Predict the structure.
Amino acid sequence: MAPELSALTCAVLLQVVAIGIAGAQMNRELGPRYNAGPRDQPVDMSPLLGRLRRAVTNGFEGLAMFAPVVLILVLAGKTSPLTATAAWIYVAARILYIPAYGLGLAPWRSLIWLAGLIATLTLAGVALFGPAPL
C-alpha cells in the first residue's frame, strides 16, 4: 500500500478515536441517556467537552480535503517521498491537534492546524503541478 494511503487510513482511525474521546467525555458530563438521545435541546457543557466536539468537527473538515487529494495522487501515480512525508505530517498534526484543542492550548492549536493544512496544500500542489508519471 502506498504510504499516503496508509496515512489516510490512520487519519480515518484517528477520527474514530477523537469521536470516542468526545463521546466518553459527553457520557461523563451529561450521561449516556443524553448522549444516546436525539439531543433536541441545547445543554450546558464544559469548555473541555465543547472543544472536544469542535475538534471532531474540524477533523471531518480536514479529512474532506485530505482524503480526496491523497486518492488523486495515488490514482494519478504522482506519489513521491515528498507526498509520503506530507501525508504523515498531516496525521502527526491531527494527533497533536486533538489534545491541543481539548486543553485550549493557544496559539499552539492553531499552529498545529496550520501544519496540517500546509501538508494538505502540498499534496494538492503536487497533484496539480507535479510531474506526470512515467
